[in-house]
Description:
With 200 residues, the protein is of the alpha+beta class. 44% of the residues lie in helices and 14% in strands. Strand 3 (81-83) and strand 4 form a beta hairpin.
Amino acid sequence: xxxxxxxxxxxxxxxxxxxxxxxxxxxxxxxxxxxxxxxxxxxxxxxxxxxxxxxxxxxxxxxxxxxxxxxxxxxxxxxxxxxxxxxxxxxxxxxxxxxxxxxxxxxxxxxxxxxxxxxxxxxxxxxxxxxxxxxxxxxxxxxxxxxxxxxxxxxxxxxxxxxxxxxxxxxxxxxxxxxxxxxxxxxxxxxxxxxxxxxx
Length: 200
């Protein structure tokens, strides 16, 4: 049975007040990984929120090394955390019922094939935002979303996120000079799209 509009609105209110299960899961993850001294950073839609693009999401993306992920799972699976399925790199916060998707350092966004943009070490790109939760930098978020959208046809949300981040952060066209050349032309194209005033 479809969820009522009232329930959807209530969940959205919780989300934007920072009181949703997703926010609790991020705090639990930050505490657990911090105690193990494992570097990580929040990426994806929650990083977009941290950089001003407010939109809801159903899961949390984390940037982490493969060996650190294995170490975390070895110690904590079954203690409030469970694998999504056997052999999966992704897992679930069973307390908050939130899926956690792992982006592995050195692997590639989008289609997963080698390209000039790869998932970087989290400590190189993390910025601390609210509640001591580390989020990837705006530059890194834009590069990963552009590279993902450029190599997958089923992820138009990545390009929309980039357009909204350009608008909200009032990024100038020459911001492109900060980015990996691989994504430069697509950034310029989406920058132009971001200048269109939809109210007129």
